[in-house]
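User: Teach me something about this protein's shape.
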Amino acid sequence: MYVELKNLNKRFGGFQASDNISFGIEKGKLIGLLGPSGSGKTTILRMIAGLETPDSGDIFIAGDRVNDLPAAKRGIGFVFQNYALFRYMTVFDNIAFGLTVQKRDKEYIRGRVSELIKLIGLEKMEKRHPHQLSGGQRQRVAFARALAPNPHLLLLDEPFAAIDAKVRKELRSWLRETINKVGITSIFVTHDQEEAVEVADEIIITNSGRVEQVGTPIEIYKNPKTHFAAKFIGESITLADYDKLHGFEKVKGFDRAVLRPEFVHITKVQKELYPHASQRGIVENIFFKGNTLELRVDLGGQKITAYQSLDDASFSVGEEVSVLIYRLYLLGENEVRLEENHSIKSEGSFFI
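Assistant: First, the predicted structure itself:
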């Protein structure tokens, strides 16, 4: 492993920010540290960078223990969410800052900065100041500045947080393509699931100072290993009486279930596909989400959510509909289990 954390602990007063954190990262990977606010992800990033000192545990980079190494000597580039650019410096001088501190010769600095300006697509903007740039352009400059000294590892703390939604989406794609081109091992912190899934090679889910699960976006989405991972990924709801849903029975040791909107299929009552597996509900609300609709449905007192394509049949608030729930995640004491609707299976068909 290129980066390895072993049994890291960090406490701030009475708050345990990192609780026995251990994981490894392969060289060249782009890793997303994903979790809610206060889950400990930024503390992990800052300990790797040398901006915080762990109370116990070890940090290894390229096989070397770096706990006692100052931040400036760890070979790390850091991109902050608020850009942290020097407002009185031009784009060129901001990017050149780290190289100037290293006392590199002027010719090398000129060549390296020109190379990075081309990489971030800001040619002919070298003489502009930060206030003359858009949020996305400023973040590109911050990214180039972090890369300029040729770090071994790149750390990004909520790099898209200060950027509007449309530019954020464009910048995510750009960042992934650029990091792949450069080939640098990178770790970015985010609380945005969509961002982590779209950008990261692997995701590390954090919660209450602990690592919940590590895996590729698809692995984590399809096979959550803990209760938190099952409930945190996607827009899920937790059900206690899941055996009241058609096609599901109570399983011993599994007291609750997690239902995701994509596990629900809504149809007109007259077009019901699987009568024994479906049940009736009432549409309470419909929200337009751009390329999809989000339906809120009352299912015998339980409020559930489903997604619908704009090309599917239209529904109206107050309409009675047929609701087919074709799978759930069952939550045991220390286990998560995927459960399929038994009534669909018994009819010899499988819902896709």
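Now, about its shape. Residues 202 and 216 are 4 Å apart (CA to CA). The chain has two domains: 3-231, 235-346. If you'd like, I can walk through any region in more detail.
User: That's plenty for now, thanks!
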